[in-house]
Amino acid sequence: MLTTKKFTDLPHPNTLNVFLGNMMQLRKERIHFFVEQQKKLGDIFQIKVPTRKVVVLSNPEWIKYVLVDNNKNYGKSFAYDSIKLFLGNGLLTSEGEFWKRQRRLAQPAFHKEKLNLMFRNMVEQTDKSVERLEQFADTNQAVNLSKELYKLTLDIVNSTLFYNEVDNTTDTIYKLVSEASEYITKRIDNPLHLPEWIPTPTRRREKEVLKYMDKVFFSVIDRRRQQHEQQEDLLSMLMDARDEETGEAMSNQQLRDEILTIFVAGHETTQIALGWTFYLLTQNPDKLKILTDEVDSKLNGETPTPESIRGLHYLKQVIDESMRCFPPAWIMGRKTIEADVINGYEIPAGTNVIMPIYVVHHDERVWENAYEFQPERFAMENVKEKHKYSYFPFGGGPRLCIGNNFAIQEMQVCLAMFLQKFRIDVDEDFVPELDPLVTLRPKNPIYAKIYKRK
Ligand code: HEM
């Protein structure tokens, strides 16, 4: 008979400090820590940190078990408490029946027919971005490509889901989101923080960031309430929704949490994915050539349509492979509600279960030469054999990213239209150093030189 092993039997990294356990290593090494420990300890190990039980999983079958098969026993991990402080109780952080109802309300905004309607809008915004870049073309002057992509993805979310209601500059939003990300990461990294009421300088700045976010997003709601014409965007859908039992509309606070969540989740990740894709294509001119040939031959110089873009198979493979190499959401976490057993080990109730997407995407047992960019891996015949959860940039199960198709479509439009017009050479001095906060940003912005294609 199989006996269940105890949680304390799980292997763990050497601890340098009895009290802090692995906390300092984790904070210093971040992604590298997970990659190295998986090599040393295998697909399941515990990490010692004060006040929390943490187990790390990198076996696709066990990840599927947590996200899909037994998802009812898993809530969101401690990290989401910090995210909640800024984003509130929106789709990303809410749980249980409340989350289910909110998801049901928001889901229709992302249906295929709606995405087809948004396509035009994505093209229009990308056209504007192309115009902005044209000014730099052939000047030999390097542009801040990260910043341009940030503006583009922000404008796309704003115009497709909020009818351009979020009137703010890219710089302000970038600063707010970056600061919030840093504060969230600091809180995640440090389980020993002081009580909330102690007004440290960081706390004071956190409050200011929050106040500013509130100002931007509550005024979006106010403005919409004062309008008389009906819009058909996500904001209106959420505002018009009524509770089935009580007939009540969502409160302003709930609306603020939902729209801020979608606004933040909807642009940062896609911008990061696009930036890394241009970097990878510059590094791999042979792959860039295959892609450009496909775009030229299938689109024939025409503006893409929802149908024509779906015919660009290599483009989709490039996007998939880019998110394998640099998954914009590099880590996910859950917490057991009741005790469970994974791979024969008892996982007590309240244990944080960390799934480092980055590690799974670079597992040499599944992805040969995992650090090489090979879009062909995602050709239909090559992915057939792979476990579904050996690649999961958008998470999985009922909490799968609501914007996954939106993001893919947006990337397809941007990449195809940029490549129709330009050759984009990412600065050869760019060092692909990772800055793994909540998302996998590059440490420094990506600069590129732009050349008009003849
Ligand atoms: C490349 C782009 C994107 C990536 C890699 C990405 C990744 C993810 C991941 C991994 C999750 C699951 C988190 C978890 O289960 O703990 C998630 C959830 C979510 N994402 Fe995305 N995302 C992207 C784009 C978008 C876009 C464009 C939107 C909206 C316009 C969006 C909105 C959301 C929301 C609201 C959730 C929470 C869903 C729920 O729990 O019901 N994301 N995303």
Sheet of most strands: 5 strands, mixed
Q: How large is the share of residues in beta strands?
A: 5-15%
Distance N terminus to C terminus?
71 Å
Q: Give the CATH topology.
A: Cytochrome p450
Task: Give the class-level CATH name.
Answer: Mainly Alpha
Shape: globular
Q: Looking at this structure, what is the CATH superfamily?
A: Cytochrome P450
Rounded Rg: 22 Å
How would you state the average pLDDT, rounded?
A: 91
Q: What structural class results from the helix and strand content?
A: alpha+beta
In CATH, the architecture is Orthogonal Bundle
Q: Report the bound ligands by name, code or SMILES.
A: protoporphyrin IX containing FE
- Total number of domains: 1
Low-confidence stretches: none
Query: How many H/I helical runs?
Result: 17
Helix content: 40-55%
Q: Please trace the helix and strand order, writing H or E for each element.
A: HHEEHEHHHEHHHHHHHHEEEEHHHEEEE
How many beta-strand runs? 12
Q: What topology, given as strand order, has the largest sheet?
A: 1-2-8-5-3
Set out the fold topology.
Blueprint: H1 23-29, H2 31-41, E1 44-49, E2 52-57, H3 60-69, E3 74-76, H4 79-87, H5 96-106, H6 112-134, E4 143-144, H7 145-161, H8 170-189, H9 201-226, H10 234-240, H11 252-283, H12 285-299, H13 306-310, H14 313-325, E5 332-336, E6 340-342, E7 345-347, E8 352-355, H15 357-361, H16 380-383, H17 404-421, E9 422-426, E10 434-436, E11 440-442, E12 447-452
Parallel strand pairs: 2-8
Antiparallel strand pairs: 1-2, 3-5, 4-12, 5-8, 6-7, 9-12, 10-11
Helix pairs in contact: 1-2, 4-8, 6-7, 6-17, 7-11, 8-9, 9-11, 11-14, 11-17, 12-14
This protein binds protoporphyrin IX containing FE (HEM).
